[in-house]
Amino acid sequence: MTPDPIHARTLRAMAAQAGLDAVGWAPSSPVPVDAEALARRVRDDMPPELGYVGRRLADRLEPSRLLPGVRTIVMSALAYAGPAPGIETMPADCGYVSRFAWCRDYHEEVLRRVADLARGIEAHWGARARAYVDTGPVLEKAWSMAAGLGFIGRNGLLITPRFGSFVFLGAILVDRDVDEPAPPAVPDGCGTCTACRDACPTDALQVPGCVALDRCLAHWTVTARTSPPPDLPLAGHLYGCDRCQDVCPWNRRAPRPDPPAFRPLPGLHYPMLQDVLDMDEDAFARRFGATPAARRGRLAVQDVAARLASAAQTDARPADDPSAG
Ligand code: B12
Ligand code: SF4
Ligand code: SF4
Questions:
Q1: Where residue 312 falls among pLDDT bands split at 50, 70, 90?
Q2: Can you tell me the distance from the alpha carbon of 58 to that of 37, in angstroms, rounded to the nearest whole number?
Q3: Range of the domain at 42
Q4: Is 202 inside a domain boundary?
Q5: Which of 25, 93, 131, 186 is the most buried (most CB within 10 A)?
């Protein structure tokens, strides 16, 4: 006997109940990426720190390796932006910690909601469901696009029509069909806009949708295990980068729901560089301990802070200062 399919209307209601802002789904096959292009990207463009993407490429391209019998990928989005300004109003003696990181580590909060929905699916339909929020080899952006949540913009991020790109994505693999086809695809919304490319401080967005990782500040300040190259402009970024999102018209006109869980923790919106440089382990743990920057560690954050402080001093020197070059 074929098991009952998931009822789309009930699924939407359950997602809202779990505190998720948008939900969609797609059949788990075919995988909505060009496998050869992805393999090339992973082989040629991924820095060693992101080698894990390539190591589990087969799992990314075949969700049944994660959940045997999988039929559907349910994708959800949770909007996280509030009204706090981005880097554009930051004083020169501070470093920018990006929106995803100035609060408690988002994985816990988002996974709690996505796992709630997964448990609901299991309980309601007797299905098997596995939840991921950046916690497994799932191509979250590509699946979100296939599930009708949004389009992938020139900045390489998933942009939802309602909340823009400041959304965290979560995936649930389920061994059931849904009784409605996948929601319609959202058409490309970039058109002739190039705002993100023009605003990127390091020219990392020359190829639409494909970030040059060897130039991206999010890589160099979040995942890299070595210091950023000396000739790469850090442009005030201490941890993460939101430039290509802050300038995006989809974000500029999106509502800012401002969930309390994602508001800046004390001292994390524009931290003073000297404060960061003066921190010992205890002080670092007090300020950054609950955030994703804790994984990076004090010395790596201070390494970037030192670069920023020295650039800020150079920039602050008057033009007629004989030591200015
Ligand atoms: C590794 C990783 C990074 C790496 C590399 C990013 C990358 N582009 O690969 C680094 C450290 C640089 C990074 C940075 C950031 N990340 Co990140 N990251 C991931 C992670 C773990 C894997 C991404 C991945 O699979 N890369 C593999 C490569 C091959 O993918 P790709 O080059 O993007 O190729 C894709 C495109 O080709 C796309 N694609 C498919 N079809 C089509 C069609 C069209 C038309 C186009 C244009 C593209 C396209 O699909 C491919 C595969 O996904 C995901 C979580 C996850 N499991 O998916 C989060 C994730 C992508 N990151 C996220 C975030 C929030 C960020 C930052 C904003 C954090 C910050 N503020 O600093 C920045 C954004 C930088 C940017 N402009 O992309 C969110 C993005 C949410 C969203 N709205 O899209 C995710 C989804 C985490 C989450 N669960 O919410 N990240
Ligand atoms: S995150 Fe920053 S450095 Fe990376 S592509 Fe976007 S604007 Fe450029
Ligand atoms: S800034 Fe413009 S080009 Fe870039 S992602 Fe947004 S709409 Fe697309």
A1: confident
A2: 14
A3: 8-81+105-174
A4: yes
A5: 25
* Residues with active-site annotation: 134
- Using the atom order of ligand 1, give the atom closest to the CA of residue 170: 89
The one-character DSSP state at 137 is S
Tokens of 175: 């061994």
pLDDT tens for residues 7-62? 999 999 999 999 999 999 999 999 999 999 999 999 999 999 998 998 899 999 99
Instruction: Determine if the pTM surpasses 0.90.
Output: yes
Question: Which residue in 106, 117, 133 sits closest to 174, CA to CA?
Answer: 117
Match 């923790």 to its residue by tokens.
265
User: How far is residue 207's CA from residue 46's CA, in Å, rounded to a whole number?
Assistant: 15
Site of tokens 């009822």: 7
Sign of torsion, CA 143 146 147 149? positive
What's the pLDDT tens digit per position in 62-71? 999 999 999 9
18 with 143, same domain?
yes
Number of domains the chain is built from: 2
Taking only Cα atoms into account, the Rg of the chain, rounded to an integer number of angstroms, comes to 21
pLDDT band per the 50, 70, 90 thresholds, residue 316: low
* Single-letter code of the amino acid located at 81: A
Residue 3 per-residue DSSP state: P
The protein residue with its alpha carbon nearest to ligand 2, atom 2, reads 241
